[in-house]
Write a structure and sequence with these properties.
two-stranded antiparallel sheet; 280 residues; six-stranded mixed beta sheet; 12 helices; alpha+beta
Amino acid sequence: MIAIPKKVADRLGKEVARFQPVLKGAKDRDVNESDTVTIIADMLATVFGFDKYTEITSEQAIRGTYCDLAVKLDGKVKYLVEVKAIGLDLKENHLRQAVNYGVNEGIQWVVLTNGVDWQVYSLKFERPVSWDLVTSFNILELNPRHGEEQDKLFLLCREGLGKAAIEVYHERIQSVNRFVIGAIIRTDAVLEVIRRELRRSAPGLKIATDEIAKIVSSDVLKREVAEGELADKAWAKVKKSTGKVLRKRNGKPSEVPADGQTVEPQEQVCAGAAEATEEQ
């Protein structure tokens, strides 16, 4: 993660703590969307560090309508903020409204919030359009002086945008998550290492990597990690990267184990898995 400047960390700790009772009071009064937008605009200025008069606007026209708030740096919109009344739960149709705004303007980052709950998304401009949840947090529940909590807040800060913190964070969560790790475990290279270690602990054991793969998928990994859309995307990502590694290393010597199957030396297999992870 990108280091947060002390000045920014101090500001986050102080200003989030100041806004927590403000938000709680607004929620207790069940204020409307317009009043919630006013609070969010103040937060963007005092918590996240933007100039209220030049870098925060509610006049960003999109296909004949206006998004609630847009954050600009050097005249360019960095992210859009779709605000709902503080008493409303954030729902799928609210997200689709925010996504539509981002797609129509070609803006990758959109924020959906009711003041208390914040959701940050990255849009993928493909057909059909898709999006990833980058992070989410509840302002009333977080500790504004805790490092991990501040990391999330920093993504939306003026200083964070200047350091491309949101891009770095998004890339990391795409590469380091349970689905990608689960996919790596199911690659031929890792399964071969497991097979070799099993044979080492039980000399003479006959076991195929296919059998190990079934055990890993059905009994070792949680089903949600090995199955479903996110698991499939992670598998495709890992297979693509490991394929690059194997092509780069084509022609290097292999060893032949006792049962006659040709495999790569253990050191090379582990290195290949590590390289695959690094390239993602």
